[in-house]
Design a protein that fits this description.
Length: 610
């Protein structure tokens, strides 16, 4: 009886071992999968294409070039075909581009609306200043509009243009006083009888105004330049910064994804369909790894992006106060009036210099024998005012409110990859979950995540091949962001922030022979040394670098899917089992089965040993 019981116990243990091993290893597709009906339904539900692109039953398609990497062996049947795979690739690419666009869209709209509003306010203030200056010249100094209109219009047009293009403010202000000087002499300095004889010297007075001593307008032109330059240059730097931020958004909106990125996105989101595993979401770690690899080029501009937003924040703090643009434009008509008053009061002092230089007739005389001053109190009802409540305070409040919104977008490009993976509908949110798609089966994602930086991704990312050669558009954008940031810092009282080291300038140094210096004596012949892929004939001799990084020594080898060919007739499949020997097994059946079987066998051995 005891012998029978021993056999019974042995059988029971054997069954337990078998069941535990089977249950633990069920991480991939069911080998008995005999229909693709659910895959076809999901394919049509997502409007990926015609249902006929998905087979009715699993089949083998040697032309699979992306999802073949997720299968256990090349002859494994699946619910994917070459044609359905192409649709998956297109949709995966669209998913990422749509996410980038969505994250950019709100900020882009916010900046565009603010720029429009800010420019309108500036233009309105300039127009008010222009109108008040003209009225003051007419009402206080009895100068006909026809005589001062051109000079006033030129000055304020230059102020408006200064916000959009390069205008030399000292030249604009000097030209205004050159043009207005003969008008002031004629209407406000000489008496009416003498004024009629000064028409022939109008050009001379305008040409030599700056040579007359003492200066007719004193230091007022220089003070006006100083005030205008202080206020307008800060506002222009502010607008320039916002425009470069917009350029960054537009550049990233049209980001071109590399084929390797598209393939990784497809494996992440759709290759599970090939095995009928649509109900499982991609693992969060798998998503993070793929997105960081695809968006490493955006993470590369992250430091410059954060720097310029920080500099805008500091600049805005100094835009208010007595020297703000609205206060300066409000005071400008009075500053011009003070300059004219100075010329009228001090006319006797520069009269002889002016008379000698422009050969003014000796019979000409100052009004009343000296400079005259306006004695009428003008009707100020014609003067427009920049209401401080609606212009000054409200404008600054709007700028501050916008800046607070802008600061929220610090880290946008550095963290975008991780942010995309926080979508619970698309991706598993439990980092430790074992019930998610890890790229080969349903199990936890075991790969170590790489830092988002470009160099780290190029060296360590196992899902996406990342090139160290920065896209020319992104390189130019980095340079522009850095340049505008320096300009912003020149307008603040704080010490310029140390610029983040650009990979293109320090961490990665390019030379004519395409060598890439990673620093610390480590050099790559080109970015392909990271993957041991190489190019060219290989016959040419190259100078020995300090250290040449080899993918065999530094980076674990990974299976590289073949290029995705659009023309299937020209497609040449790779040799069977190419690079299979070192392929990382993300939770494969072999590794998962071994542990329970070994433990079970050990228990059986202990039982029999009794």
């Amino acid at each position: 009886m005891s012998r029978y019981r021993k056999h019974e116990e042995f059988l029971f243990l054997a069954v337990c071992v078998f069941v535990s091993g089977f249950t633990y290893t069920h991480g991939g597709a069911d080998d008995t999968l005999n229909t693709c009906s659910h895959v076809r339904e999901e394919f049509t539900r997502q409007n990926l294409g015609a249902a006929e692109l998905v087979p009715e039953i699993p089949q083998t398609d040697e032309l699979l070039s992306v999802c073949s990497r997720t299968l256990k062996h090349s002859s494994q049947k699946s619910c994917c075909t070459y044609e359905s795979e192409k649709k998956y690739v297109l949709r995966a690419e669209k998913f990422l581009k749509d996410n980038i666009h969505t994250k950019n869209l709100k900020l882009k709209s916010l900046i565009e609306n603010h720029i429009t509003d800010f420019e309108k306010r500036i233009i309105s203030m300039i127009e008010v200043g222009q109108n008040n200056t003209g009225n003051k010249l007419s009402d206080w100094y009895s100068i006909p509009v026809s005589e001062h209109r051109l000079a006033v219009n030129h000055l304020f047009t230059d102020l408006e243009e200064y916000m959009k293009k390069t205008v030399i403010l000292p030249s604009s202000v000097a030209k205004f006083f050159d043009n207005i000087f003969p008008v002031i002499v004629k209407n406000s300095i000489f008496d009416k009888d003498s004024s009629s004889s000064l028409t022939h010297v109008h050009h001379c007075l305008s040409k030599h105004r700056q040579d007359i001593q003492p200066k007719p307008f004193g230091d007022f032109p220089a003070k006006i330049v100083e005030n205008l330059n202080s206020a307008l240059s800060i506002s222009r730097a502010y607008l320039d910064a916002l425009h470069i931020v917009l350029e960054a958004i537009n550049t990233t909106d049209f980001l071109v994804l590399e084929d390797d990125c598209k393939h990784a996105l497809t494996r992440l989101q759709y290759c599970s369909h090939c095995q009928g595993l649509m109900q499982y979401k991609p693992c969060k770690g798998f998503c993070t790894q793929v997105m960081r690899g695809c968006l490493s080029i955006l993470a590369e501009i992250g430091p410059e992006w954060d720097d310029i937003i920080g500099s805008i924040e500091i600049l805005v703090r100094g835009m208010g106060g007595v020297n703000s643009i609205d206060k300066i434009l409000q005071r400008l008509p009075n500053m011009i009036s003070d300059a004219i008053m100075h010329a009228m009061v001090n006319a006797p002092k520069f009269f002889h210099s002016m008379q000698k230089m422009c050969k003014i007739p000796a019979s000409s005389a100052l009004a009343g024998g000296q400079g005259k001053v306006p004695h009428n109190v003008p009707d100020t009802s014609r003067f427009l005012s920049i209401n401080e409540a609606s212009w000054s305070e409200n404008m600054y409040v709007e700028v501050m409110r916008f800046t607070l919104d802008l600061v929220d977008y610090k880290g946008l490009y550095k963290n975008m990859a991780d942010e995309i993976c926080t979508q619970p509908i698309q991706f598993e949110q439990d980092q430790m979950s074992g019930q998610c798609w890890n790229g080969t089966s349903i199990a936890g994602y075991q790969m170590t995540l790489s830092d988002p930086s470009l160099v780290s991704q190029a060296q360590n990312n196992q899902e996406v091949k990342v090139s160290l050669i920065l896209d020319p558009k992104m390189r130019r954008l980095k340079d522009k962001l850095s340049s505008v940031n320096l300009n912003l810092q020149s307008h603040t009282d704080v010490e310029p922030q140390s610029l983040n080291v650009m990979v293109s300038d320090d961490a990665v140094v390019y030379s004519g022979d395409k060598k890439i210096n990673l620093g610390k004596g480590t050099t790559l012949e080109d970015d392909e040394d990271l993957y041991n892929s190489g190019s060219g004939s290989g016959d040419a001799k190259q100078e020995e670098p300090d250290v040449v990084i080899s993918s065999k020594d530094t980076f674990p080898e990974r299976e590289r899917p073949p290029p995705y060919e659009k023309d299937r007739d020209n497609y040449i499949p790779p040799p069977p089992n190419q690079n299979k020997q070192n392929k990382p097994d993300n939770g494969s059946r072999t590794n998962q089965v071994s542990l329970p079987l070994i433990l079970g066998a050990f228990l059986v051995f202990l039982r029999l040993a009794r």
